[in-house]
């Protein structure tokens, strides 16, 4: 194999690939990048047997070929180069990375042992990259990170008429986002949230993303990039199992003002980080107390309808719930007792978001 490519483009392709498939260090083959050079350019591929990705890059190919080399050293070397072009050429049992006045060489791994990069064909649809990134940045962050509970570590993507609905929960909160999409079939899959967090970062600036589901696999493709993954069992995940019909208090408040007050008051919260939200006639008063830290309270002006109540929330979860509504007015639909509170934007945009937050036992006086 022998090719010349723009350094910046090749470095970006390698970096994107490594983030999509970090690799398994215990197996050098699964930590490698498969480089395939043809007349069309060079394709970089990776697989850990559960997840695969491929990124294409333009290149002037002098000699076709396919090699497998360690992925992270390749990505880090390309990122460090400042020359506009770089040459990759096989020299014996090494892949030489050549730039003006410099040569770096990576060992060749046995590419015949690599599982290859799969593709998924099936039903799916197309969504806006920016809208998908907005939805995923909130929803994926609410999934559990505890691998001991894998059923809570994913995001459920389900087509509902002309909308794609995303849901995730860690049992203490749930985020639901709905966005328009052009479908050619139905989709209902549970996708690992760790992958979708990275997808969100990479698609925020692209026009369209195609999503496909088939045979216990999920695929997303955009531009010169495609990624596939095995799916989780997530058919259970639905907000219909939560009691959301007994709202007796509605509070409309500036999300930024409430978040800022929460951060300040939470400095005086107990070990659980719990703050109490007391609803008045035209304000909410945040309170926190701790035997050692002291106590704090702060009022925020609001529009209130319905009864008066005083739910308590873990401050970091309340801040997470308010974050996607930054710069907007948010409505808190509060249910009595220990039932969930639902946060929604007063003026939703193309991506409609609902954040369901479970209350906590209030701090002891």
UniProtKB/TrEMBL annotation:
Keyword Transferase: yes
This protein's record includes keyword Oxidoreductase: no
A Pfam family the protein falls into: DNA_pol3_beta
Boundaries of every DNA polymerase III beta sliding clamp central domain copy: 129-236
All copies of domain DNA polymerase III beta sliding clamp N-terminal, residue ranges: 1-111
Subcellular location: Cytoplasm
Keyword tags: Cytoplasm, DNA replication, DNA-binding, DNA-directed DNA polymerase, Nucleotidyltransferase, Transferase
Family designation: Belongs to the beta sliding clamp family.
Protein name in the entry: DNA polymerase-3 subunit beta
Origin species: Actinokineospora diospyrosa
Lineage of producing organism: Bacteria, Bacillati, Actinomycetota, Actinomycetes, Pseudonocardiales
């Amino acid at each position: 194999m022998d090719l010349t490519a723009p350094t910046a483009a090749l470095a970006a392709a390698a970096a994107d690939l490594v983030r999509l498939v970090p690799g398994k260090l215990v197996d050098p083959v699964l930590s490698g990048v498969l480089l395939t050079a043809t007349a069309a350019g060079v394709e970089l591929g990776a697989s850990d047997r559960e997840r695969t990705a491929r990124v294409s890059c333009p290149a002037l190919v002098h000699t076709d070929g396919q090699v497998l080399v360690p992925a992270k050293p390749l990505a880090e070397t390309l990122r460090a180069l400042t020359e506009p072009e770089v040459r990759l050429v096989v020299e014996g049992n090494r892949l030489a990375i050549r730039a003006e006045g410099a040569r770096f060489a990576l060992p060749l791994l046995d590419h015949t042992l690599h599982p290859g990069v799969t593709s998924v064909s099936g039903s799916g649809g197309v969504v806006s990259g920016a809208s998908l990134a907005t939805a995923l940045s909130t929803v994926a962050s609410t999934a559990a990170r505890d691998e001991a509970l894998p059923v809570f570590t994913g995001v459920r993507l389900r087509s509902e008429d002309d909308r794609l609905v995303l849901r995730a929960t860690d049992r203490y909160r749930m985020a639901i986002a709905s966005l328009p999409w052009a479908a050619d079939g139905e989709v209902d899959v549970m996708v690992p949230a760790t992958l979708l967090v990275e997808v969100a970062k990479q698609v925020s600036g692209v026009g369209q993303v195609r999503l496909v589901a088939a045979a216990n696999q999920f695929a997303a493709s955009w531009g010169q990039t495609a990624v596939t993954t095995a799916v989780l069992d997530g058919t259970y995940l639905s907000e219909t199992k939560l009691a959301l019909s007994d709202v007796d208090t509605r509070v409309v408040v500036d999300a930024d003002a409430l978040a800022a007050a929460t951060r300040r008051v939470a400095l005086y919260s107990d070990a659980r980080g719990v703050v109490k939200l007391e609803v008045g006639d035209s304000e909410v008063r945040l309170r926190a107390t701790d035997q050692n830290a002291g106590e704090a309270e702060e009022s925020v002006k609001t529009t209130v309808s319905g009864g008066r109540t005083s739910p308590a929330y873990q401050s970091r979860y309340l801040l997470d719930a308010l974050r996607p509504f930054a710069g907007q007015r948010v409505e808190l639909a509060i249910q009595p007792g220990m039932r969930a509170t639902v946060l929604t934007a007063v003026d939703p945009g193309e991506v409609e978001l609902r954040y369901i937050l479970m209350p906590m036992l209030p701090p002891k006086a």
